[in-house]
Specification:
Length: 482
C-alpha cells in the first residue's frame, strides 16, 4: 500500500531552518462598523496561526474557501480528480500543534471519502478514516492532507494470459471537497488560521527557460517550492530582471526567498542559484542584497521599504550549477509589518495551452483524471499497484508500488512536469520530468544511515498512450485505461 509514503510535493527537501519571523505582530480582527448593536460581530479571541502559504494540487484557486469561516464555500477537486490529490499548509515558524479536524464537504457531485493520509514536516504521521480527528502533538513547519479513496469507488476486472487485476475508477462526474479545517494547539485551543494576504499581480521576466508552462514566473508565488522560475538567457542569469506590477499598492519591508531549484537536493545542486541581486521600486534607487548558497528560506530585511504598485528585481550574480547554467528561484514571499503577503500571478494562458493541445486527442479525457491499477502479472510474478494523474496545469504525480514474490517491494513516487510531444485521437506521446522519491531508502534515512539526497533522483521519461494503456521507457511499465 502507498499510505506510508512521504509526500510527493517536496516538503521534506524544503523544511525551513532559517530565522523565520516566528512572532508576527497581531492586530484585532477588523470588522465593518455595525449598523446596530444587534448586528455587531462577536470578537474573535482565537490566537492567530499565520501561514507562509497554502496550496491545493487541484483547483488551487478555491483553497482559501476553507479558511473563510463560511461553511457554504468549499474547496473541491476538479471533476474526476480526488484520490491522491491534497492540500499543503506551510506555517510561519514551527508552532506546537495537537490536533487537526477536517470537515469533508457533502452534496451533489461530491463523493464521500473513506480515509486520508496526514503528513507533518514531510513524513507520514498517521492514516485516518474521514470521520477521525488527526493527532499531531509536535512542532511543525508543514502539514499535507492527501485524499484517500471513496467507499463506492468502481473496480473493473482485467484478466488475460499474463495478468489479472482491477482498473480502479473514480467517477469523472464527481469531486472530493473540504469545507473547513480546524487546527488546535496546546490545551486543545483552536487557532484562527490566517493565510498570507493576497494581491493580484502581473510578474514578467526578461527571459524564461522553455517549456514556459513548467518554468514561468507564476512558480515564484505558487507556494510549491518544488516548482521554480528558471531564466532562459546565456550564462548564470546576470542582468536578467523580474518586474512586478501589482493591482494594489504595498509597502514591503522584508522578503523571503527560497533559492535554486528545490525539487530535490540533486536539482538544487544541478542548477545555478541566485547570489547577488538588486530590489526596489521600479524607477527608484536599487538596493543590493546577497544570498547564501543554502536551500533554506532566507529572510531579507530591506534597506528601505519598497512601496507602491511597481517593483523590480535585477540579478547581479549567481552560484554555478553542477550540470546546468540556467538560474532558478523556487519561491518568494513578501512581508508587510511582519505579516506574509503573496502575489496571485496565475497564468491562465499557459494552462490553456496544454488544454488546447489535448483537445480532440486521446489525452483530452485523461487531463486531471487519476488512472489507477491493482494488477498481478502472473507470468513475471509481480504485483503492481500503480496510478498516475496528468494535470492540466502541466504537473503530474505517479505512485508505483511493486512487489515480486520473495524479493520484497519497490515503492516510489514520481512527480514533476509534463508536456505533449505529439497527440491525435488514437495515440499520444508525452514527456515527463522531475524527481523520483525512493521509499525503500526512507527507513535508512530516518535511522541516520544515509542522507536526504539518496532518497531522490532526477529523471525524465517518455510515455506512450494507445490501445487503452499508458507505457513508459524508464520509470513506468504499464497502466491500463478503461
Amino acid at each position: 500500500m502507498l499510505g506510508f509514503f512521504l509526500t510527493v510535493f517536496g516538503v521534506m527537501s524544503c523544511e525551513d531552518t532559517s530565522n523565520t519571523n516566528n512572532n508576527p505582530t497581531t492586530n484585532p480582527t477588523e470588522v465593518a462598523p455595525p449598523k446596530s448593536p444587534k448586528e455587531e460581530a462577536p470578537k474573535d479571541d482565537r490566537e492567530p496561526l499565520y501561514l507562509q502559504g497554502v496550496y491545493a494540487t487541484s483547483n488551487d484557486d478555491m483553497v482559501r474557501n476553507i479558511f473563510d469561516g463560511n461553511a457554504l464555500t468549499i474547496w473541491k477537486t476538479k471533476k474526476g480528480a480526488g484520490p491522491d490529490e491534497g492540500i499543503m499548509l506551510y506555517f510561519e515558524g514551527k508552532p506546537s500543534l495537537e490536533k487537526i479536524e477536517i470537515t469533508f464537504a457533502e452534496g451533489s457531485g461530491l463523493a464521500k471519502i473513506d480515509n486520508f493520509d496526514l503528513y507533518g514536516n514531510g513524513a507520514l504521521l498517521e492514516y485516518f478514516s474521514a470521520d477521525e480527528v488527526g493527532n499531531l502533538n509536535d512542532n511543525y513547519t508543514s502539514l499535507f492532507i492527501r485524499l484517500g479513496t471513496p467507499a463506492d469507488i468502481e473496480k473493473v476486472t482485467v484478466e488475460d494470459e499474463s495478468k489479472i487485476g482491477s482498473v480502479v475508477k473514480f467517477s469523472k462526474n464527481q469531486s472530493i471537497g473540504i469545507s473547513d479545517i480546524k487546527i488546535l494547539g496546546k490545551g486543545k485551543k483552536e487557532f484562527r488560521i490566517v493565510p498570507p494576504r493576497e494581491v493580484k499581480a502581473k510578474v514578467v521576466a526578461s527571459s524564461t527557460l522553455k517549456p514556459f508552462l513548467a518554468y514561468n514566473t507564476s512558480k515564484l508565488f505558487d507556494t510549491r517550492k518544488e516548482f521554480a522560475w528558471v531564466e532562459g538567457a546565456d550564462g548564470f542569469g546576470a542582468g536578467q530582471q523580474i518586474n512586478f506590477s501589482l493591482e494594489d499598492a504595498v509597502e514591503i519591508d522584508e522578503m523571503k526567498l527560497w533559492n535554486g531549484y528545490q525539487r530535490s537536493p540533486n536539482h538544487y545542486k544541478a542548477n545555478a542559484r541566485l547570489r547577488g541581486f538588486s530590489f526596489g521600486e521600479k524607477g527608484g534607487k536599487p538596493y543590493e542584497y546577497n544570498l547564501r548558497d543554502d536551500p533554506a528560506g532566507q529572510m531579507i530585511d530591506l534597506t528601505v521599504p519598497a512601496k507602491g504598485k511597481e517593483l523590480e528585481l535585477k540579478i547581479n550574480s549567481g552560484f554555478k550549477g553542477r550540470s546546468y547554467m540556467d538560474m532558478a528561484i523556487s519561491e518568494m514571499l513578501f512581508y508587510e509589518n511582519g505579516k506574509p503577503l503573496t502575489l496571485n500571478v496565475t497564468d491562465d494562458s499557459a494552462q490553456k495551452e496544454i488544454v488546447d493541445q489535448a483537445k480532440e486527442t486521446i489525452l483530452e479525457s485523461l487531463l486531471d483524471y487519476r488512472v489507477a491499477n491493482e494488477m498481478e502479472y502472473t507470468v513475471s510474478g509481480i504485483f503492481a499497484n500503480r496510478s498516475i494523474i496528468l494535470r492540466s496545469d502541466g504537473t503530474f504525480v505517479m505512485y508505483l508500488d511493486e512487489a515480486e514474490a520473495g524479493d520484497g517491494s519497490f515503492l516510489s513516487i514520481a512527480d514533476g512536469n509534463w508536456s505533449i510531444i505529439n497527440a491525435d485521437d488514437k495515440k499520444a506521446k508525452v514527456k515527463i520530468f522531475g524527481k523520483v522519491l525512493d521509499i525503500s531508502a526512507v527507513e535508512a534515512y530516518y535511522a541516520g544511515t544515509n542522507d536526504q539526497a539518496e532518497l531522490y533522483r532526477i529523471f525524465k521519461d517518455e510515455l506512450t498512450i494507445k490501445n487503452n494503456t499508458i507505457t513508459g521507457e524508464k520509470i513506468l511499465d504499464e497502466i491500463i485505461i478503461r
